[in-house]
Each structure stands twice: as C-alpha cells, then as structure tokens.
Amino acid sequence: MRTIHGMTATATSARSDLSELGRSETALRTFLHGLPGVDQVGAEQRAAQLGTRSIKTTAKAQAIDLAIRMVDLTTLEGADTPGKVRALATKALRPDPADPSCPHVGAVCVYPSMVPYVAEVLRGSGVHLASVATAFPSGQAPLEVKLADTRAAVAAGADEIDMVINRGAFLAGRYQEVYDEIVATKEACGDAHLKVILETGELATYDNVRRASWLAMLAGGDFIKTSTGKVPVAATPPVTLVMLEAVRDFRAATGRQVGVKPAGGIKTSKDAIKYLVMVNETVGPDWLDPDWFRFGASSLLNDLLMQRTKLTTGVYSGPDYFTLD
Amino acid sequence: MSERVAVRKTYKLFIGGKFPRSESGRSYIVQDSNVVLASRKDARDAVVAARAAVKGWAGATAYNRGQILYRVAEMLEGRREQFIALGVPAAEVDAAIDRWVWYAGWSDKLPQVYGGANPVAGPYFNLSAPEPTGVVAVVAPEAPALLGLVSVIAPAIVTGNTVVVAASPAQPLPAVALAEVLATSDLPGGVVNLLTGRITETVPTLAAHMDVNAIDLTGVSDAELAAELEVKAAENLKRVLRPAAADHDWFADPGVGRMTVLLETKTVWHPKGV
User: Does domain B27-271 have CATH number 3.30.230.10?
Assistant: First the structure.
C-alpha cells in the first residue's frame, strides 16, 4: 500500500513506459530480464512460514465461507457430459443444500462445448461461468484456432475465459509472440474477463514465473492463474507467492489491479486457508475477494463444506453426505 | 567405562500404521511410563485413516484376512514374554493368542454360515451375502487389558471392518504393545487404530462422527455416559453394541455375536432362465 501512496510523477511516467513495451521484442526482453531475480530459498521459506498460522473458530468460519465464494468449481475431463456439468452447476448455486446460509461458489469452469448447458443453469444467479479456451491445456494450436475457440466460448455464454500461454514460445524467449497472443485473445474475449494460465509447472524457475506474470499483466490479462491441472506440478505456495508479489508490484507501477488464481492440487480447507493467509500478508485485504482471488479446484469444495458443517453442528461430517462431483 | 543407560520406550498412538504422538502433545503416566493422552483431533485423524483403509481391507479376500489374523497370533506368540513383563498373566496372553487363531478361522466360514441361497416363490436365484459395515469405533474393556482388547478387535476386523479403538485408560501398555504386534503382522495400515487416554475425551467425538458406521460400547462402565454415547450415535443410525455386563467372562467361548452384529446383509435377486 505504501508504494501506491508514494507514487506520483514517477508512476505516471512508468505507466506510459510500460504500455510501450509491447511494441518491440527487444523492449519486452530488456524489461522482463531486468526484473529482479526471485530468491528461491527466501520465497519457499516465506511461503512455508505463512503456512504455519493458526486460524481458528470465528476466523476459520469466515475464511471457509470466503474460500467457498472463491472456488472456481472445475470439471475438465474428456468424459464430461451435459448431465454431469449441469449437476456441477447446480451444486455451484447451492453447495450445501442442507444449509441455506452457505454461500454460492465464485464460478463454474468447463470446456467450451459444455458452456451452453452450464449457462442455462447459472443464468441470473451471480455465479460466473468460466471456460478454458485457446487449445487448453497445451496451447499448441494455430492462433486462428485459439481465437475461434475463445469466441465460441464467449458466444455460448462464458463471461470468463481461462487461456493458456504458449509455453513453447515463452521458453524459447519469443516474448513478443506470447504477448501478441494474449492481446489478441483479450480482444476476442470482448467483455469477458481473461485469466491467463502460466502453467508454472512447465516454467522451471521462479524467475520465469515472475517474467510470465508480468508479461501476462502487460498484455492485458485480468487474472493470472498458475496451472491447468493437467501437468504433475500444479499450484504451490511459493509459486503463488511470487505471482502475488507480481500483481502487487504491477498495481504499484500502473494502478491496475490484477487477480490471482492458484489451480490444481489444492484439496483441503487447511491448504485453502494457508493461501488466504498468504494473500492477506502479501497483497493485503484488497485481494481477499472473489473478484480478485480464486481457487481452481474440484475436490476442495467438499472439504470446505465438511469443515463448515463441523463448525456449525460441532460434529465431524463424512464424505457420504456430499456429492461426489 | 561408563555404565550403559537403557533406552526407555515412549508409548505412542497407533494411527494409519504409524506411531504418532498426540496432536495435543499431552501425556499421562502409567506404570512409570509416559502414555499419550489422545485428543478429539487424534480421534478425527484415526477415523480418516480407518476410512481410507476400508476399501483395501474389505476388498481383500477372506482367505487373505484370515492369514493375516493368524500372522498376528504368530507375532504375539513371539512377544509372549514382553506382555508377561508388562503384568499380563501368562494364561491371559495364551488365551489372547488362541483368540486370534479362533477368529482367523472364521474369516472364510462366516459368509457360508450367515449367507447363502434363499428359497423364494418366483423364477429367481436369491442370494444373501454378509458384508462389513465399515468403520467401527470400539471402547475396549477395562480388564482384562490384553484378552479383552483382542476379543473386541479381532471379531470386528476379521469380516473386513476397520476399527478405531479406545484402549483401557488404566492399562494402556498392553494395548500399545499389541499395536506393535499388529504393525509387524502384514495388517494394512489404518485397519486398526489405537487411541490411549480418557474415554470421555475421545469417544464422544467418535460416537457423533458421521463417518463412523458402528460403535461398540463394551468398555463403557458408566451407564450415564453409555446412554449419552448412544444418543450421539443415533444421529447417523450407527449400529451400537451395548456395554458388556460387569461379570462378563472373557475367557469363555466368545460365540459369533460380535462378528455378526457388525455386518450388513446384501441380498441379490437374479432372474432365472427358463
């Protein structure tokens, strides 16, 4: 926050500087490689330390409800059927049918072909409809195909698009190509929010995560998301910490706030609460809102509901009392 | 040369095949040894471990379960002296070993005796098969510490259930020693989970837990507590075994009642070709 208040004339000039970066490959590379390196040991230690906070009773109840509101309830399987995604959308509206005080989730996230079925259920409910696009999960398709994929999803009713960056191009150092693809996809999204998936499990280093975060934000992404959930290494606390620092610094430099979405591998309420602690300690309460922080998850919701039931009834619940998907 | 200092044992919990300390970090002293005072969170963790073990254990063949129970008897025989040193009478150790063997024999016979073809008026094969009920919470009898414990664990697990056992608070050492026997007997982790400490602290949590399918109140001597636990157990219609009579003879032939009460009967109607 201090940085925000501290910026005046320098910030305005920085803002104009940053918007020029996308015009040349050299400028992008110079900027991204000029970002300070991530202290790997420090980031891991900080993330681990933030994971040791004890959140109990009323604070825990608040955290669980907030986490439920932040869940992007996701199903991205080849075996998805209209019936299955409809059931999932119904669950998103009322996660715990036995308790009307339970909030609805943030969004439902499905493949583009499943969007129409979900849209029917979610219309007017306030639950967002996210769709993955741009040849998810590999992103290895011609640009026209990716853009058509995006437009189709938006036309079918998605108001949030989760795109994947071209990791091949990014790792090969062709930053301009990645940048242009994000810009083009953002344009194809129209009014829909754009979440940019960095697939951090394939980026190898925290330095690359920081660069990819900045690249995605410079190109106009509304959210940066860790992973597709389709590679062995998904969201980890240190990676999310690096991304949170990036959105904090980006807002300080440009005044624009960007959201963060860790996805994949977050399965328990305990994990989710650790992430919330990290958000509060790194970027502050401005991001503690479903508009600015989301969890990409499927099994997490049931654990949150079981913990919520334990807090309200005083009795440990079991998986028998919640839906499987 | 200095004299060797003997290594003293810490008596810990047995959850999911491991020997953790209590999440609460507390302990109490029995026979000059520190014994873990389990908390309700340990009870919760034990139920999670027991639930995770149900699929593999109930899915194992009856023959395999019988072999493993027999293996427990073998390992117990090998540690006979250890139990005697803990103050368990030799005759009780022998009876406990024999009880494992007795129940081991039942593993593949119980379905034959309590299941089978039913005569029905229609063109159907009608077959009933007993199946395990799932996770069973057990309060072990206060005495005899070893034979009583074996007599409540063995009948529950031989049919494929997994158990969370609250050991006798006054005599937990034979229970923890038995856990060491179980840990070295090919019994998959989580099939038997052992909590030491106060009954009033852990068992109400187990009785109310929605992911527990049955509760055996054998070792509950306080009638008021037993009633309270039954009320808690009613929430998800747990099967309940009432407390044992104070003069119950644990050395007598146990009968099959303890096994059959923890079973569900599955009946299948199959159309018969003409």
Answer: no
